[in-house]
Structure formats: C-alpha cells, structure tokens
Amino acid sequence: MKENILDVLMYLFENYMIEDTEYQPDQESLARELMLAGFGDGDISRAFDWLENLSELCDRGQTAMPGGATTAFRHYSAAECDRIDPFARGLLLSLVQGGVLTPSEREMVIDRLLALDCDELDPDHVKWVIMMVLSNCADNPDDYAWIEDLMFDDVQPLFH
Predict the structure, then answer these.
(1) How far apart are CA 70 and CA 93, in angstroms?
(2) Are 51 and 42 in contact (CB under 8 A)?
(3) Are the C-beta atoms of 76 and 84 separated by less than 8 Å?
(4) I want to staple 67 with a disulfide (CB 3.0 to 4.6 A). Which of 15, 80, 104, 160 is the partner?
(5) pLDDT category, 140, cuts 50, 70, 90?
(6) pLDDT tens digits for 102-127?
(7) DSSP state of 76
(8) What is the chain's alpha carbon radius of gyration, rounded to the nearest angstrom?
C-alpha cells in the first residue's frame, strides 16, 4: 500500500502528464490501474478530488485566488507556517520574484499544498506541487520547463 495522495498524484503526473502521450484513459480506467499499482481506494479518490479542485482553480484563473502584486510581501498564517516550511516559502518567494510563478499561481500552490494529507512536506513535495500547478495553469511552457529542470536536474534557483 502506498503512503498518501501525493504518491498517487506523483504516479499520475509521471505516467500521464509529463510525457506527451496519446493514451488518455478515463477516470475509471485510471482508478483500476492505480489500484493494481498498490494505491488504496481512498487515496485514489482524494487524489482525483485534488486534481479536480486544481482544474477548477486554473479554469477560474486570477479571479480564483488573487495573489496581489508581484512586489507585494506574502504573509503566511500560523497554520500555513506549520505546514509549509521556510525552504518552501523561500522557494515560492524566489519563483514569484523571478517571474516563474504569478502571485495567483503561488496562491494555488499554497492551496494545493495545504490540501495534501501529508504530515510533513519535504522540498521535493513542494516542487512536485509547483510542477502540477504550472502544468495545469501556466500560459508559458518555459516556466514549466524551468521547474522541471529544478525538480529533475536539482538546479538551484538563481535569479538576476
């Protein structure tokens, strides 16, 4: 049995979202495949809900989660600080300041991080969620490619 919905999401992302695949299975087929891969029914259902909520946020765009100006400082609530560590908050700040994430996309990332049922979010979890948000919402494919390099090539963010 796999650990949580993030594992399901990462499996889906690696197998269906990263590659430009012709195969577009329906949700029922995906659920069967995920169960065969060892994921639990509850985690599969929660992962599908997580993706559906992300899709709704992306469809509504900036009006869904306005994030303020790019130059504005984002203050995190105590609950957000409990779940999102200083590394992740710094990464999000760097990505917004560097123009990779819009403030609205940052808010979507924060929303989706908090929606995970993980006790601890390690840096890779945060990068995966950023990639998922950008792959679903970003207008600029270069932003997604930049995060993909950060994720898979362990590039350190450096902005000028």
Answers:
(1) 9
(2) no
(3) yes
(4) 104
(5) low
(6) 898 999 999 999 999 777 788 888 98
(7) P
(8) 16
| H helices present in 13-155, as ranges | 27-36, 41-60, 78-83, 86-97, 103-115, 123-137, 141-152
Closest CA to 110 of 137, 83, 140: 83
DSSP state of 64: T
Return the closest-CA partner of residue 12 out of 151, 23, 1, 97.
23
Measured between alpha carbons, how far is residue 100 from residues 1, 105, 142 in Å?
A: 35, 9, 9
Separation between Cα atoms, residue 81 and residue 50, nearest integer Å = 21
pLDDT of 107 reads: 92
- Of how many residues is the chain composed? 160
CA distance 19 to 51: 18
The one-character DSSP state at 59 is: H
Tokens of 118: 């993980």
Could you report the per-residue pLDDT of 13-56, keeping only the tens digit for each?
888 765 555 666 788 999 999 999 999 999 999 999 999 999 99
Among 84-93, 104-113, 142-151, name the one with the lowest average pLDDT. Answer: 142-151
